[in-house]
Amino acid sequence: MPSSSKMLRSQVMTVWMSAHVLRVMYVSANELFPLETGGILLGWRSGQDRVVVDLRGPGSRALHGRHCFIPDHAWQVTEIQRAFQASSGDLDYLGDWHSHPDGIAKMSDLDEATLSKITKRVRGPLMLIVAGRGTEWTARCWKGQSHGSYFWRRQIVEPQELTTFVPPSDWPKPEACQDRSPSETMQ
Ligand SMILES: [Zn+2]
Hints:
Number of domains: 1
Order of helices and strands: HEHEEEEHEHEEEE
Strand order of the largest sheet: 1-3-2-6-7-8-9
CATH architecture: 3-Layer(aba) Sandwich
Number of helices: 4
Distance between the termini: 47 Å
Structural class: alpha/beta
Number of strands: 10
Bound molecules: zinc ion
CATH superfamily: Cytidine Deaminase, domain 2
CATH topology: Cytidine Deaminase, domain 2
Shape: globular
Strand content: 35-45%
Largest sheet: 7 strands, mixed, barrel
């Protein structure tokens, strides 16, 4: 049972993360190590909860640096539309993910600013960070939330509970992360 202090919070939610999707992120992060990589999370909303069942990587025109990562935004938008149509509307954009190679799973100032920006156009977006190296990777998740009135709104970034699950075998398999190899890198 959730604690009473948790119940008082307006947006108690769980992020259900497919174990397969998490593994693909760790493998992708390892392949680009020590450069950052990332992509988008796909799945659906269930009440306040989010169910992440698929992902996409950075895209071939993404830029990967040691402490920064710029995804191939145009490609990602196309992929979101394609996934939405192919799943008859089941799969939708839920947020972004990226790696902190040899770092910790914590939001940087830039990460917070990026999530706040996404929050202005997407309802309750997630940002998931995978951090570590080799076989030692951890993941943590945050959600952006808009508060305030029509005239005065501000975006709040809150950590979210992440619960890994193994999807039933009759669920559609997520697409492999086919776009992992970067065409360009930057330092
Ligand atoms: Zn970051």
